[in-house]
Design a protein that fits this description.
The structure is a single chain. The chain contains 14 helices and 11 strands. The chain is of the alpha/beta class and 342 residues long. The strands form 2 sheets. The protein has a 6-stranded mixed sheet with strand order 7-6-8-5-9-11. Strands 2-1-3-10-4 form a 5-stranded mixed sheet. Helix 3 packs antiparallel against helix 11 and helix 5 packs antiparallel against helix 11. The radius of gyration is 22 Å and the shape is globular. It starts with a helix and ends with a helix. Bound molecules: D-tryptophan.
Length: 342
């Protein structure tokens, strides 16, 4: 490269740098860098939540904190997320408590069939409950963001119009969805979301029960052509930081992160409910002829009846562990109804 060229190249990159990094953030080097791991791709809604959080922390700390994101399991996978954060592999990890209900027992109450109307209502309820009950299952962590999916739907290769179609069908769900599918008569398999596309292709499963944006975000509509129009249960997400790491952060940074924690359930719920799911359904209908199968009223009533005992069973199981299950569900119902009205 001749001298003239290299000077102009330098000029262009300087200009691009100044233009692209207009926030004071970028001009001063960050004092603190936090690594943030997530198990699924950046373009999925939890991934977008992570990018938004990273950008906001940088902006609101005036560049003092930079966040390096590691989506798609590049640093930690779904099953190792929380232990990975404890061990310091990542400073922050976004995992799904629904994948491990044994480890997050109280949180699994949010994934009972509670009739949440959307992800925003469920996300806000989850966050409030966690603040109020401060469940022991998050001991050693600082929870920095919580949210849920919309209530999941059964999405399959072959049509499911009634319990007979579902009987014995191999379907995948997050851990907390397994008892739901079992109660409905299917043969459930618990597995993390990133394993689903291949398991569908190889025929290990005939479909999945989760939020419907996965039809597009994981390209599942290429093989799953049917959605049964029966909302089931939400899947929970929690992003956590190791407590000791948190305690070392300066107070002004902690304040920014706590403010954001209060905002993330709404931000994520709204994006998921208002853009993400609708766009995916429209795309799947247009590109892959997705069919939404209504459930007849009497069939719906039978499905509801099959799921009804789950709440009492859960309370009994949690009481056995010495957890305040009945109080948690009572408050959950109040919050659900309060947020559904807003
Ligand atoms: N945890 C999920 C739900 C899920 C829905 N969308 C995404 C996107 C990225 C990761 C996970 C998910 C489930 O397993 O059902």
């Amino acid at each position: 490269m001749n001298r003239r060229k290299s000077i102009s190249a330098l000029f262009v990159s300087l200009a691009a740098g100044l233009f692209g990094l207009a926030a004071p953030a970028a001009v001063h080097a960050a004092e603190i860098t936090l690594t943030y791991a997530f198990f699924a791709p950046a373009k999925t809604f939890p991934g977008r939540q992570m990018a938004h959080w990273a950008e906001q922390v940088n902006k609101r700390t005036n560049g003092k904190v930079a966040v390096q994101t590691f989506p798609a399991g590049t640093l930690l996978g779904a099953k190792e997320m929380y232990d990975g954060v404890s061990k310091g592999v990542a400073d922050i990890g976004l995992g799904s408590p629904s994948y491990d209900p044994g480890r997050f027992p109280l949180t699994s109450g949010v994934s009972l069939p509670m009739g949440f109307t959307n992800a925003t209502v469920a996300s806000r309820s989850l966050w409030e409950l966690t603040k109020e009950f401060n469940p022991k299952e998050y001991e050693g962590f600082k929870v920095i963001a919580m949210f849920t999916t919309e209530p999941g739907f059964i999405q399959t290769k072959t049509a499911v119009r009634n319990a007979g179609d579902l009987a014995g069908m191999k379907l995948r769900a997050a851990g907390t969805g397994v008892p739901v599918l079992k109660a409905l008569g299917a043969a459930p398999i618990g597995m993390p979301m990133p394993e689903v596309p291949q398991s569908v292709q190889t025929g290990v499963i005939n479909g999945t029960m989760t939020s419907r944006e996965v039809l597009q975000d994981f390209k599942l509509a290429e093989s799953l052509k049917f959605v049964t129009d029966y909302p089931t249960v939400v899947v929970t997400f929690a992003a956590v930081m190791d407590r000791k790491k948190w305690d070392k952060l300066p107070a002004d940074v902690q304040k920014v992160i706590e403010q954001l924690a209060a905002e993330m359930p709404v931000w994520t719920g709204q994006y998921h409910d208002k853009e993400n799911v609708g766009a995916a359904l429209a795309w799947a209908a247009k590109e892959h002829k997705l069919q939404i199968l209504p459930l007849a009223a009497d069939e719906r009533a039978r499905w509801d009846a099959k799921l009804k005992p789950m709440e009492d069973e859960w309370v009994k199981e949690m009481n056995g562990k010495g957890l305040p299950a009945a109080a948690y569900l009572k408050r959950l119902r109040e919050l659900r109804d309060q947020f559904a009205k807003q």
